[in-house]
Design goal:
The structure is a homodimer. By secondary structure, chain A is α/β, with parallel strands linked by helices. In chain A, 41% of the residues lie in helices and 22% in strands. In chain A, strand 1 (56-62) and strand 2 (71-75) form a beta hairpin.
Amino acid sequence: MKKHDQDFMKRQNRLTVFEIIKNQHPISRASIAKQTGMSPTTVSRIVGELTEQGYLLNSDQVSAGLGRKSTLLGMVNASVLSVGVDLDRSLMSIGIVDLQGKLVCGSKYPRIPDESPETTLIRISEAIEQLMQQQEIDRTRIVGIGVGLPGIVNNEEGIVVFSVQLGWKNVKLAERLKELNGFDIAVDNELKVRALAEHLKGAAFGSRRTALLGFGHGVGSAIILEGEIYRGVMNSAGEIGHTTVDPSGMMCDCGKAGCLQTYINISSLLSEANRIRPIGTIEELFEAKRAGEHWAIHLIDRALMYMAITINNVVCMYNPDSVILSGELVDKFPDIHDEVEKIYLSRFLWEPLRDSFTFHRSMLNERGVMIGSGLLSQNRFFALE
Amino acid sequence: MKKHDQDFMKRQNRLTVFEIIKNQHPISRASIAKQTGMSPTTVSRIVGELTEQGYLLNSDQVSAGLGRKSTLLGMVNASVLSVGVDLDRSLMSIGIVDLQGKLVCGSKYPRIPDESPETTLIRISEAIEQLMQQQEIDRTRIVGIGVGLPGIVNNEEGIVVFSVQLGWKNVKLAERLKELNGFDIAVDNELKVRALAEHLKGAAFGSRRTALLGFGHGVGSAIILEGEIYRGVMNSAGEIGHTTVDPSGMMCDCGKAGCLQTYINISSLLSEANRIRPIGTIEELFEAKRAGEHWAIHLIDRALMYMAITINNVVCMYNPDSVILSGELVDKFPDIHDEVEKIYLSRFLWEPLRDSFTFHRSMLNERGVMIGSGLLSQNRFFALE
């Protein structure tokens, strides 16, 4: 067995023990050993580590029945907290998340769009300290910080490879933020952590395979399989915005023609609208549609049609049991959910998969990325990630 | 811990022990316990089961070094074999596959396209008996039979839900074939087992995330993640043939317009060709192109363009490290590989993923489904599936 595999097995064993205690406490060491097939020595070592780190305690209860009485293990209440950061172009939301994915507290901070990484990270670090002080949270209870942001993220090394929205390239976010405040840092793409949150604690609770779609300033998707983010080899799986849906279509900012996002995202819609007359915001465009302006009806209907096509294509390729709509367009115009559903049901859904999935609105909305980032940080701590 | 989870853990433990012995034999029980953290009791129970079943033996070697000498465990040579069946419309290929994925022997049998499931299964069963006799293979060494076929398969229950090519609907293949010959039966979609074979023993050996594309009578894909087939909730993941690539496109036999397969698959190409002049086979169509007939150049170039688009879309959505081209079109016209590569590199690949994957021809070709089905059967036996 290679070193790598042995480490993997150790992490798996640790996670297994923690999950059993979390779900069955109070419980005896012997019962854990019996359930898992692990040796008493292995169980004791793991329990010892977790106790030393303050997550477990020896409860007052002892095991029932015949035989030698043994002390049962319990969880330390609220022993595990993490910080979730939703880092976007002009807004940062920072919250403290518990084991159940609940926000203990949270706050919003404006961000200047062309702020340097260094300034942003210092401000995040200060905001977290302030939050812990205000809420009187012992910093030893925080197991780490998760940061979700738009762009391509190297999640293993905690590097922001490229983010158009933040204007960042190759920023060693995890390394720098850890220098600033000492916590372990997990970084990921915002849609991936949002999907994780909806899968574990939101609209797709109970789902085994969740696909989340984001329609807003970008177009993207994220997939969760049995609690785990489906990443692909470069953490880029789900980049549906750059799938080609029309080889004779419009130019995309990526340099290709006919990318899906050219039909849906906010900047494309505004740029198309401005061929007709000056339109400054997406609200103005939808207002023009409501006023019956034909060009606006055509433009928005085309976007809705491509959203419906996207549902079919995502369902055909990932075969999820739940599909969740999210993103600024859907948050601002919630009717989109029902309209898109009508379109894909009547025209675009492949018949054999008609009953294979449920279609949801996001449930966590603007809290999704914060909660997902916090959960990601906890998962990493407990060695799932 | 639920019953389900305990069973899962038992299967996982058994597989872990078997994998360690397979890769490190001769090895002692103590070393297995140390590497895995399992108790000596658990290791002994699993080793006992595997020995009783004839897969392991106590080798003549004993452990080196100080301390109590212990007998080392070895593998019984060629102890594990399985049968792989490639079941297609007019041809059945049946082979015996060893632990390394090598074909010990194999044979082909014609099939009458409208043959009933019962007739086909009886013929498969007889062919397997004959093969074992001819090769003097002890039937106790066969751990099971895998069957790969085109169509939608419920792999958990071994039911062919729907296969246009075979003309079958809701056929309880696994149940009936097991009645006929007593072996454990695994059934799956042909592209999924072909991808498994190429991932484990073929063109994508060493890959962690493999995407295989099939271009032939249908258009489909299959994804393997770290040795496991990515199935989705209905075992339908990868059905790229019915993704919509042009809402104003041609009608597909599924009842939707503009499905990807209408631009690529053999029957669509022939039906389009026959708008111009009578064309009976795909070879005639490619001959017309070589002869410089403009309509044929246009038709085939369009197909190649959509194949290139498919590469980009699959790479964006699954972010694999290897992409493999397979299927009748590629087998008959191998130049397609290089032509498609040229097109996607120059026009359709999203720049950030340019270096994220390698692009391969199928290596196992017409043996792929047989080998993959055999490996699937072994995986299931060793509790991986």
